[in-house]
Specification:
single chain; mainly alpha; Lysozyme; two-stranded antiparallel sheet; 7 helices; globular; EC 3.2.1.17
Length: 154
């Protein structure tokens, strides 16, 4: 159950569109709001200042990273395939943004595992800080994700 990916077809397209839109595309490495070298659609792993990538490389990196984060997310969920597609996409986006460890320790994960999907959508909005301060871009992202997450429950 925990190994399967749902990032194919429309679910995969939706995840790439959502994450790509919020992360933005930068082909040359830059420092994010807390000073971490970042490139492409928010990739930080192994990134050094001065790194450069093509859009095609960034697209491939995003898909691979989304799948990696999805695998980690699924490992700490009891029944990931029961989560409606739009809600599922928002939790993949959240996991990509905050990391697998933070997601697996989160109230959102606990609520998903208890079947409280609306409560999980609400708890996901709490991740709006970086470096200890509220970031307007994260508030906006979580608001949009929340709207999509709840749409999935109708």
């Amino acid at each position: 159950m925990g190994r399967k990916s749902r990032l194919a077809g429309t679910v995969g397209v939706a995840a790439i569109a959502l994450v790509g839109a919020w992360e933005g595309l930068r082909l040359v490495a830059y420092k994010d709001v807390v000073g971490v070298p970042t490139v492409c659609y928010g990739e930080t792993y192994g990134v050094k200042m001065g790194d450069r990538h093509t859009k095609a490389e960034c697209d491939a990196m995003l898909l691979a990273s989304l799948k990696k984060h999805e695998r980690g997310m699924r490992k700490c969920l009891k029944n990931p395939d029961a989560i409606p597609p739009k809600s599922y996409v928002t939790f993949v986006s959240l996991t990509y943004n905050i990391g697998v460890g933070a997601f697996c320790r989160s109230t959102a994960r606990k609520r998903l595992n208890s079947g409280d999907y609306k409560g999980a959508c609400n708890a996901a909005t709490w991740f709006n800080k970086a470096g200890g301060r509220t970031i307007k871009g994260l508030v906006n992202r979580r608001t949009a994700e929340h709207r999509m997450c709840l749409e999935g429950l109708k």
